[in-house]
Amino acid sequence: MLKIVTYNVNGLRQRIAQHGSLLKLLDSLDADIICFQEIKLTRQELTADLITAEGYESFFSCTRTCGKGRSGYSGVATFCRVKAAFSSIEVALPVAAEEGFTGVLEGSRGTESRNCYAFADAECLREFQTDDLLKIDGEGRCIITDHAHFVCNVTLVGNHSSFQHIWAPG
């Protein structure tokens, strides 16, 4: 059976320090797919010790904005075991991954997003300007991974006031 764990770490660096290494943290959770919210890292802070662990593939969405003077205040990550614990086949690895809710961000590896969710053309988003959609996705609150038989959406949702500046009419 595939195991999925979700965990609001309130700072990934601190959780890794508590366990001694990223690999020890991931192994302690004993899951095939591990979803972290509130990693509190910027893209510039993504060093090998924070993002790579033998036997896992990682996907990150970090805040790209400095709203209210804060940087690295949100962020989500998904770690997928290369081989599932119950099988020798790579069932936990996604066939596609996308950063953000809307599909308008450039991919985290400098390429266009792989549109595993294809939300960018959705009717409900047409009333928003591209800049507004970029602000939403730029907060680092969503990673979507498509695992062929299911889609995993890791989302960090703030309180109502944290989104009001984007969703409320100006």
From TrEMBL:
Cofactor binding annotation: Probably binds two magnesium or manganese ions per subunit.
GO biological process, one term: base-excision repair
Gene3D superfamilies: Endonuclease/exonuclease/phosphatase
Key words of the record: Hydrolase, Magnesium, Manganese, Metal-binding
UniProt binding sites for Mg(2+): 8, 38
Chain segments annotated as coiled-coil in the UniProt record: none
PANTHER family: AP ENDONUCLEASE, DNA-(APURINIC OR APYRIMIDINIC SITE) ENDONUCLEASE 2
Full protein name: Endonuclease/exonuclease/phosphatase domain-containing protein
Native organism: Opuntia streptacantha (Prickly pear cactus)
Source taxonomy: Eukaryota, Viridiplantae, Streptophyta, Embryophyta, Tracheophyta
